[in-house]
Design a protein that fits this description.
The chain is about 75% helix and about 5% strand. The protein is mainly α. The chain folds into 2 domains: about 160 residues, Helix Hairpins; about 60 residues, no CATH class. A 3-stranded mixed beta sheet has the order 2-1-3. Helix 1 packs antiparallel against helix 3 and helix 2 packs antiparallel against helix 3. It is rod-shaped, with a radius of gyration of 41 Å. The structure holds zinc ion. The site of zinc ion (ZN) has 9 residues, from loops.
Length: about 230
């Protein structure tokens, strides 16, 4: 294998490794996990609020019952014949009216609260179902991702071994040039096809084309990439 062919192979290995690395980053489930966690916290806060409202509702219903008992007791006093003074009777009627009005107001408040609780209950139920679904999806995805991760790690190990052997067969300064070009241009080696550089598509002069089969490295006069005959 000529030097340029080995460099072309090195680039192919590096590109394959890059694709795996990119896939690895894409497979990251941490982001999805954080999202589910955030939604879970949100739904927990809503459930907490729901419980507070339910408690207020329960307390309010108790207060209504207390006011009912109070009205009943006052009615008995009013119609029981124990109070006969017109002034006292009038005062009693005012008191009863006051208690009834308090009760009406409270009942109106409770109806609004009941609506709010109903809406929140429905919202929480929906969100809880969504979180549960997301958790299930994540679980099955984690399983799939886990299997794929195994494959990728295995392949990357193999690639790195092959790359190590290949690099060991190359002169240090050639590897340095390759590394520098790849970092600067994204690819270091350009396969020559139909007389043009595969990196920048510039047509190459005849003497460059003739030199391709030789052992020395040649570079594209336009983009500077190492030229290699297309395998
Ligand atoms: Zn070029």
């Amino acid at each position: 294998m000529t030097l340029s062919a080995r460099l072309l192979e090195l680039e192919r290995l590096d590109q394959e490794a890059d694709r795996y690395e990119k896939e690895l980053r894409g497979l990251d489930v941490a982001g999805a996990l954080a999202q589910v966690q955030a939604e879970q916290d949100e739904v927990a806060a809503r459930v907490k609020k729901l419980k507070q409202l339910q408690e207020r509702l329960r307390q309010g219903e108790e207060d209504v019952r207390e006011l009912e008992r109070k009205t009943l007791a006052l009615d008995q006093k009013l119609y029981g014949g124990m109070v006969t003074s017109p002034t006292q009777l009038a005062a009693l009627e005012i008191e009863i009216a006051g208690v009834r009005s308090d009760k009406d107001r409270l009942e109106t408040e409770l109806l609004e609260l009941l609506d709010e609780v109903g809406l929140l209950e429905a919202g929480c139920a929906q969100q809880l179902a969504r979180v549960e679904q997301a958790q299930q999806d994540l679980k099955s995805r984690e399983h799939e991702v886990g299997e794929r991760l195994e494959v990728i790690r295995e392949n990357l190990l193999g690639l790195r071994r092959t790359r190590g052997d290949l690099v060991a067969s190359l002169p240090d300064h050639t590897v340095a040039l390759y590394t520098k070009l790849r970092a600067a241009k994204g690819s270091a080696v350009a396969a020559v096809e139909s007389g043009a550089c595969g990196g920048c598509n510039m047509g190459l002069p005849d003497h460059k084309l003739r030199a391709l089969s030789k052992e020395e490295l040649d570079r594209c006069p336009n983009c500077g990439r190492i030229l290699a005959p297309k395998p």
